[in-house]
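Q: Convert this sequence to structure tokens.
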Amino acid sequence: MSKIKLSTISTTAPKKLDKEKIKAETQSILQELDELQNVLYAQHKYSVLMVIQGMDASGKDGVIRKVMGSLNPQGCTVHSFKAPTQEESDHDFLWRVHMHAPGKGMIQVFNRSHYEDILIQRVHKWIDDKTVYKRMQAINDFEKLLAVHNNTQILKFYLHVSQEVQLQRLTERTEDPRKMWKYNENDLKEAKLWDNYMEAYDDAFNKCSDVPWIIVPADHNWYKEYIVALTLRDTLKSLKLKYPRLKK
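A:
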């Protein structure tokens, strides 16, 4: 498997694509997902964990709202990982993550995830590299546990936004009344650490790749939503899901 290096990967949709056609195809995929989710829930054999990572303003909330918003909330939940509480910090770093792993029949979305513990903490040097690599191994073991022992399909998305678009979106949060609620004064400070984050992400991608990463160009929302929806649809179709029959 070739190594991932974000600086060599485009953040934009392929120019040959027709925006309106892709948006129409996304809507068709979302309709398919409605039925596929229903069978997933009914069969109660598999689960899905969707990890959504990305820099601030890469559009994590938006893609979750767009792609998951039409699904049945009984079978789909979203958990956002913030700074750990004191209780969470008193345990191993995966303790708070494991309790949100999906049960059979469920789709669980992580808005940020266990990867924050080898990204933000590394960038700010709150942990040393020795601890980072121990955590990487623990993450690989954790994901293997879910996949092998609980039939969990893990989809790891990185929303790959450019520095220019990130700055534009962060600036909009200070000017657009509809987006001011998203404003966090720390976001611009974190944006200045861009190169450090890119280096940390590259290392995480290449050392935690037993479950492969999907790098999603995120400068165009319509394309980002399409890729995430398409990947989820194709994953569920590959499971050959079937409604349970009456027991005789």
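The chain has a mean pLDDT of 96.
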